[in-house]
Amino acid sequence: MAVTVLIPTPLRPFVGGRDAVELEAGSVGELLDRLAGQHAALKPHLFATDGRLRSFVNVYVNDRDIRQLAQRETPVKPGDTVSIIPSIAGGTTVAEALPRLSHEEILRYSRHLILPDVGVEGQQKLKAARVLLVGAGGLGSPAALYLAAAGVGTLGLVDFDVVDKTNLQRQILHGTSSVGVSKLESAAARIHDLNPNVRVETFETRLTSENALDIIREFDIVADGTDNFPTRYLVNDACVLLDKPNVYGSIFRFEGQASVFHAKRGPCYRCLYSEPPPPGLVPSCAEGGVLGVLPGIIGSIQAMETIKLILGAGQPLIGRLVLFDALKLQFRELKLEKDPECPVCGAHPTVTELIDYQAFCGIGAEPSYDGAEITAHELRDEWQRDPALVVVDVREPHEYEIAHIDGAVLMPLGELPDRLGELDGHHEIVTHCHHGARSLKALEILKAAGFSKVRSLRGGIDAWAVNVDPALPRY
Amino acid sequence: MSLVLDARQVAAIRRHGEADYPAEACGLIGGAVEGDRKVAVQLVPLVNQRTDSARNRYLIDPESFRRAQERLERDGLDVIGVYHSHPDHPPAPSAFDREHAWPWLSYVIVGVGQGRAGELKSWVLAHDRGTFDQELITSEERKVVWQ
Question: Is residue A92 included in any domain, yes or no?
Answer without folding.
Answer: no
